[in-house]
Amino acid sequence: MVPEPRDPSEFGALEQEIIDHLFRLQPSYAVGLGLHGYDGKVPDLSSGATEAWATGADALLVRLHRFADADLPADRAVDRLLLQLLLESPLFDLREARDYDRNPMTYLGVASLTSYLVRDYAPAAQRIDAIVATLGAVPRILEEGRRRLHGPLPKPFVDLSLAIGGGLPTHFGEAEEFATRAGLGGRVAAARAPAETAVVAFLSWLRDDCLPRSTPEFALGAHRYQRLLWVREGIEAPIEELRAAGAADLARNQARLTEIAAQQRTTIPAMLDRISQDHPPAPDVLPLARQFVEETKRFVTEHDLATIPEPAVCRVEETPIWGRALSTASMNPPGPFDTGPTDGIYYVTPVDPKWSPTQAEEWLRSFNRALLRNITVHEVYPGHYLQFLHFHRSGGSLARKVYLSPSFVEGWAHYTEQLAIEQGLGRGGFDAEVAEIHDALLRDCRLLASIGLHTQGMTLETATQLFQKEAHFERLPAEREAIRGTFNPEYFCYTLGKLAILDARRRLLDRQFHGSLRAFHDALLGSGCPPVGLLDALLTSGPGGGAARPG
């Protein structure tokens, strides 16, 4: 029998129900989007609770699939697929990747207080309530982790968990300092003590019990990797097709870097070394970053690259202490549901006063002028901050305001680095382009390492050599990049997203946007942060919208 057509008005109610269900498992996701009714909420990660959540997600998927594309307007047919992926993605984590049974970071991540510390979205007392509630749940969450994490755990997961967990007491201390400035330090101190005790006990268990029994095995395998591409990005393209696209981008970037070195009559290592030495002194790093923020904002306007929604205010600040171990520079933008100021916070990690002169010099080389400008393009204009200004102001559906694709977010920012060079940023010399290509080589290698490590039996040593040879990295950072690929296969997102956007631009810029980069970019940013496999469907508003394949 042909099923009866569904009433499209029912779809909106189901959309809300699916989003509510998602946030029961991932309340911190909602907080990051600016839905502060979820502040301080911590999920129940017991096996019974997550299985009940998964069963509920199964039932919602059945109801969602009762809506045929013909029942819905074209744009809502795309939303139906977004909602499907919003359920299938955590189901993959639970049942296929088995994150809750093999990755301690799943539990330690619940202890993050960053969302309550970095933005003044509400009075301090309200944010401190959320901090206290989160700290109060830490012992229960970590005890649940000890019950669920069984069997030999992947060694890279344990190693990183120990590193992340070791920074949590300092993180909690920053929260107490914040509360003390508001006259409420005692409340956080009381909640902090048992939370820290639980963290110390959890880390001791990982170090003494789990680490000796850990296994080097971490790979997803080809089948689960292909599933990961679908549930995160709506991509059905074969893995080999994506690997070939990444390899071609790597070859293109290598060829251009070789060409520039030949024109300058030098070698690639010598050229990179010369650029790295052109860095500001430590006190001038943040002022130079502020200068580049203004420069890149003018560049977007003067070259008519995209609309900059106003007010557009980006502050440059030192990275908070708890974030310095893992970040050189980062953007903290407003969420799409935030109702407070839309200021962006561009965090730059300064030289640590405790470092030796040699360590300080090594760090400053990573902030050479050419690279810091490229980082600013990525993080601020026309990268992440501009992207999230559009996301904040988008009038799209609930599904589009909730979906946050890593490959779209990082792919857009990475794409803008190449865009800026194409449009003449830093023209008059090669330093800006060399910095952009050097970062692109890193991202190309991440894609190739991710696929190799998880589907082709690539060893950590081979991945390390890939970063050394092709991205021109020193041994230590190359090893760190290789290890990162074991627990974060999705660091393919930079190149994968960039290639998808370039492919859409090549096919649609003239045909649909009459050659206007501004019109293309505004349409792209106006679609939210969708899975890159759906770019065609979103940009063309065609009915049904099959998954696009980045080339």
Which radius of gyration do the C-alpha atoms yield? 23 Å
Strand count, sense and barrel status of the largest sheet are: 3 strands, mixed
How many individual helices?
26
Q: Report the end-to-end length measured between terminal Cα atoms.
A: 40 Å
Structural class: mainly alpha
Helical fraction: 55-70%
Gross morphology is globular
In total, how many beta strands? 3
- Poorly predicted parts: 1-5, 542-551
Strand content bin = under 5%
Q: Element order, helices and strands? A: HHHHHHHHHHHHHHHEEEHHHHHHHHHHH
For the residues shown, what is the average pLDDT?
93
Number of domains: 2
Short description:
The protein has 551 residues and is mainly α.
Describe the structure.
This protein has 551 residues and is mainly alpha-helical. The chain has 2 domains: 8-219, no CATH class; 225-497, no CATH class. Helices cover 66% and strands 3% of the residues. The chain contains 26 helices and 3 strands. It has helices spanning 8-25, 27-32, 47-65, 74-96, 99-102, 105-108, 114-117, 124-148, 155-166, 168-181, 185-213, 222-233, 239-263, 268-277, 285-302, 357-365, 369-379, 384-393, 398-402, 406-422, 431-455, 460-470, 475-487, 493-513, 517-526, 535-540; strands at residues 314-318, 329-332, 344-348. Strands 1-3-2 form a 3-stranded mixed beta sheet, covered by helices on one side. Helix 4 packs antiparallel against helix 12, helix 13 runs antiparallel to helix 21 (431-455) and helix 20 (406-422) runs antiparallel to helix 21 (431-455). The chain is globular.
